[in-house]
Amino acid sequence: MKIIVCIKQVPDSEAKVVAADGKASWGDAPLVINPFDEYAVEGALQQKEAQGGEVIALCLGPETAKEALKHALAMGSDSAILVSDPALGAVDSQGAAKLLAAAIPKIGGVEMVVFGRQTLDDGTGLTIAQTARVLGWPLLSFAGAIKVDGGKATVERVFEEGKQTISASLPAVVSVVQSIGEPRYPSFMGIRKASKAVIPQWSLADLGVTAPTPVVTRAALDNPPSRDVTCEIITGETPAQIAEALAEKILAEKVL
Amino acid sequence: MYFELNEEQRMWQKTVHDFVAAEVKPKARDIDETATFNWDATRKMGPIGLLGLSIPEEYGGAGVDAISAAIAIEELGWGCGSTALAIAAHNGLGTAPISLYASEELKKRWLPLVASGRGKLGSLALTEPGAGSDLQGGVRTRAEKVGNEWIINGSKMWCTNASIAEYIITLVRTNPAGGSRSLSMILVPTNTPGLRIAPAEKKMGLKGSPTHEVTYEDVRVPLDNLIGEANRGLHQTLATLDGGRISIGALSVGLAQAAYEAAIEYSKQRHTFGKPLAEHQAIQFMLADAATEIEAARLLIYRAAWLKQEGRPYSKEAAMGKLYATEMAERVSRNAIQIHGGYGYSREYPVERIYRDARLMTIGEGTSEMQRMVIARQVLLND
Is pLDDT at B194 greater than 70 in this prediction? Predict the structure, then answer.
């Protein structure tokens, strides 16, 4: 089975993101593979182990995003492709879906496309459904377990309310949640392969498309308003007195 | 000259660092307090390649370059001295002699098992009650050929990993005449009758890395369990120990790095005389010295590793690296306690554990005094 895993490169979760001149800035914090996408790679590799076949990591982004693809290779993906073009400016989720849906048929013979449930940066979680829509393939979202049998994928969807089992015929788009299993650590053998890998870069011309016009634009980007916080230390003779004074304060402020 | 890790080494460093931060460092305090070995993390090390650093890929290992091996042990040392020591001993001492000298049959039988993390580890027994630094004259454990078996009698001390190992590579006397060609390495599976592994020694630190006395009473193993050539055991051991020195040096750099990071963090949080500790010059000087010495030690270790992987002589550089890095780790962790003040002496903070762990490094796998002898011998030889 040929499986595509779509990944994105995002600022590290520990990065301090601030708005400056209408743009998000994370200083010199490192860029990493989107943590949710590590679960997607894990899910794709599990399917490869169960079914045989290959896992191809696909990423849309600047040239630096090859680092994220190398992480997917080090985890065990067979190959990687970067879609990148200087003509691409800000790409919204629909634009990303159109570009991914152009790359997937070019790869050819794909039976499953796996995404992480959302990205850590924009976090809309929309690209997944939009890609499925453009491809015209069924979407099996929030999968905590995937089973493929006889040209059909059955997934166990995991949400707050409970679980739901649904299935669809292949090819299909699947998004995975953490219940799929902890992402494996890269191995030294995987790293050796990844560090030597030459990752092909596909331009808009290679895909035969033009830069998509964003349907969603950002009118403004501001930092959250800073809050003035005053700190009051409650004192008393005994712990019981301090507790009592604190309780009275809490009640007076209508916190409880 | 080029002072950067290559891409493969950088990715490897990050992988091991992330693994250690998630699986090893959080358990370091507990395994020290309870003197238990961290099997959970060790099982997960197999697929990453951490248990097959010196094992070729064809036998299930990762076959990493010497700098990548040093990086791995350094990162493990940053997380937990005990775990790092056990894994360093497994790779450098418990499996390297098999990879380098053993027969195809022995390699196939044992290496894939111990590299995978599914089996137990490897160990090497050299030291005896009367033989430490002087193996050539001191080893009394002997093996005699009887029929198609070796019969081994004697005892070993300070055997790292014995109770968590599949086998113990044992240095034995096979030629009673003595001299440099009188010792051999023999692989003894730990379930062999007559082999007795005593309860773990009670130590100052590194309590999560079990160390044992091992006795051999008419222990019988096939002649084929000989590793390498008969009576070449001393040479094989000395070559193995050269590599082990890089490893212990790297481990010490990791310990020092952890103590230094803890000291930096504490010195920024703790206030005295109206300002953070980090703003007092006396503290800054200790931190500056630590940063400088850690860097110097790391470069010595990486250079010795680089010489090793280039196939050039590295005995002197490995000795220099081990000598400097281990003594540096003791100083840096000592000062980290000093910076923490009373809290540093408490088990609530990691620096006292690191200090206890670091203390062994100037003793194990060749004392500082032995390193100075090795260095002096080479320095005088060349002048």
Answer: yes
A45-90 pLDDT per residue, tens: 999 999 999 999 999 999 999 999 999 999 999 999 999 999 888 8
Regarding whether B225 and B251 lie in a shared domain, the answer is no
Task: Select from B61, B89, B121 the last residue of a domain.
Answer: B121
Q: What are A's interface residues with B at a Cβ cutoff of 8 A?
A: 70-71, 74, 184-189, 191-192, 194-196
**Helix and strand totals (H; E) in chain A:** 7, 13
Active site residue: B23, B33, B365, B369, which one?
Answer: B365
Residues B115 and B63 in one domain: yes
Cβ of B62 within 8 Å of Cβ of A74? The answer is no
Region B293-312: what's the mean pLDDT?
97
Q: What average pLDDT does range B218-238 have in this prediction?
A: 95
**Min distance B172 CA to chain A CA atoms (Å):** 35
Q: What is the mean pLDDT of chain B?
A: 95
CB proximity B57 to A under 8 Å = yes
Same domain, B14 and B59: yes
Q: Domain for residue B89, yes or no?
A: yes
pTM given for the model: 0.89
Radius of gyration of chain B (CA): 21
Query: Is B318 domain-assigned?
Result: yes
Whether the per-residue pLDDT at B383 is higher than 80: the answer is: no
Domain range spanning residue B192? 124-231
Q: Any idea which residue has 């299930």 for tokens?
A: B60
Taking CA atoms, B58 is separated from B46, B52, B61, B117, in Å, by 15, 11, 7, 16
pLDDT in tens, A224-244: 888 888 888 888 889 999 999
Closest residue by Cα to residue B44 from B83, B98, B9, B99: B83
Domain boundaries along the sequence of chain A: 2-207
Q: Token pair for residue B194?
A: 């007559």
Task: Decide which of B121, B137, B163 is a domain's last residue.
Answer: B121
Query: What is chain A's mean pLDDT, rounded?
Result: 93
In a domain, B250, yes or no: yes
For the domain made up of A2-207, give the CATH fold. Rossmann fold (3.40.50)
* Type of residue numbered B378: Q
Contact indicator for B99, B61 with CB cutoff of 8 Å: yes
